[in-house]
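FW: tagging you since you asked about this chain on Friday. Here's the raw sequence from the shared folder, copied in full. Didn't touch anything.
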Amino acid sequence: MAESTTHVTGTAAKSHASIQVHHPARTSFSGVQWLDFLFEDFEFYRYGIISILLLVFGTLAGAAVGLGAMSSPVEIALLIIPTMAALTMILAVAPMRTLIWTCLFAIAIDVIMIIYHLVV
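HL: got it, structure written out here
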């Protein structure tokens, strides 16, 4: 098999190219200053935030079920509905604001159920 070689000769014109990158407009997450600062670039860090949220609310939901939520269908529903809503938001690639609020709601329900089962 013969190999073919292509030779290109010539001169390249010198050019100065500049690229301008504009930061997207700042959006207010909640109106609370410290929360807005915390989630300032939440769209940029989307996949890192999603990984952390999956770990947190998945673990908390499992702990809530393990501590005694299996005793009542109502308790199971209280855990499943917000957790599945949060997972649906992740799969639907929902806006991060909606996703974070849904996950925070699921986490709050999980923590309430854990505290309930530890106290009662």
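FW: The chain has four helices and no strands.
HL: agreed, and Residues 42 and 53 are 12 Å apart (CA to CA).
FW: great, closing this out.
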